[in-house]
Amino acid sequence: SAVISQKPSRDICQRGTSLTIQCQVDSQVTMMFWYRQQPGQSLTLIATANQGSEATYESGFVIDKFPISRPNLTFSTLTVSNMSPEDSSIYLCSVKLTDTQYFGPGTRLTVL
Amino acid sequence: AQSVTQLDSHVSVSEGTPVLLRCNYSSSYSPSLFWYVQHPNKGLQLLLKYTSAATLVKGINGFEAEFKKSETSFHLTKPSAHMSDAAEYFCVVSENDYKLSFGAGTTVTVRA
User: Fold this and answer.
1) How far is B38 from chain A (nearest CA, A)?
2) Do the chains contact at A103 and B36, CB–CB below 8 Å?
């Protein structure tokens, strides 16, 4: 398995601002993923982030709104830009090891 | 295309009685199937996975699931519920080894 940490664990932000979420894993992994879990709902994949290439975004998510960095094999960031209350969610990163994805604890974001 | 339907949004059981969480999947290929659990304000934890080996899969904390291709089902069971089993459970399907599709989730309540 993998040990994954995220920072911050939670934040309250004002609309129109941006927040960068960090994800750190304790081993080198090729594939990292970012998910969104809106209140009371299931998880939706935002994008796949492979080291050394541009992130691949799922339908409904765009790079201008959710820019992602993947500078090395153990770290990634997700920025939520120009936030609105609709962005209030839990954001989770995950990594793929062999045939299983492991998830970080999540970042709980509230936008006022 | 892959998708998952969790047939119960909420399940309530008494402590010490069996738990059954139902999941049906749709997949064009031979899928991998997973059950994850999410305790309140905590991250996702892998309970068990099916990846084309034995159809009866045993997981952590006494949970098990049976893959039934003819019924396209992957139901999760536990013979005796414990108070600590109260959580949200997600059935997940993956066709291509990295993109996960989550079910809507089943909330389990355990009565003393």
Assistant:
1) 10
2) yes
Q: Does B24 touch chain A (CB under 8 A)?
A: no
The pLDDT of residue A50 is above 90: no
Which of A31, A42, A45 is the closest to B105 by Cβ? A42
Average pLDDT, chain A: 94
What is the C-alpha to C-alpha distance for residues B35 and A86, in angstroms, rounded to an integer?
Answer: 28
pLDDT digits (tens, 9 = 90+) for A56-109: 999 999 999 999 999 999 999 999 999 999 999 999 999 988 878 899 999 999
Residue B9 pLDDT greater than 90, yes or no: yes
Count interface pairs A-B at CB distance under 8 A: 44
**Using CB atoms and an 8 Å cut-off, which of residues 52-111 of chain B contact chain A?**
90, 97-100, 102-105
Those residues with Cβ within 8 angstroms of residue A81's Cβ, 6 or more apart along the chain or in another chain = A18, A64, A65, A66, A67
Q: Which two structure tokens, joined as six digits, stand for B29?
A: 């290929």
- The answer to whether the beta carbons of residues B63 and B35 sit under 8 Å apart is yes
- Cα A11 to Cα A14, A21, A33, A91: the distances in Å are 10, 10, 21, 11
Alpha carbons B60 and A104: distance in angstroms, whole number: 19
**What is the pLDDT, as a whole number, of residue B13?**
97
